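Page 42, continued from yesterday. The earlier attempt failed because a stray header line got pasted into the input along with the sequence. Redoing it now with the clean sequence only.
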Amino acid sequence: MDTGFNLPSCLAAVAALGIALVVPSGSVWAGETSSVLEVKSDSDDAAKLVRRILDEEEARLEACGEDFVERNPGDSAKVSLRIDLSAKGGTVHSMSAADAERREVACLGKKLAGVSWPKASQKVSVTVKIGLNVEGRR
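This time it went through. Structure tokens are written below.
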């Protein structure tokens, strides 16, 4: 996947500056039953890259939103996951052991684990917050 920039160089430069990024919900997609609410990282480039990948993987996340709505009509939930990018690619983690047991967290984690995450020359973490049925559509 050509991202249009040199990720290792950008990650090193941004990390050296100690810059953090919070992407507001208005600049990411919102599906029928799921939406990316926030993408945060100390690396501006890593956050932008993960956001772009999440845009491309909307259908994967929407499947988890649909499952949540079917099981919990009228309810909403927020799920936070950490994506670690390294020389080996990306790994997805729940934010706590208790979260890992929630069905919607497991679904989103499994769907995102199936993504071909880019490799980074140095480890960088990106935190993603995903809302399920936050508009109460059903």
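Notes: The longest helix spans residues 58-71.
Reminder to self: strip header lines before submitting.
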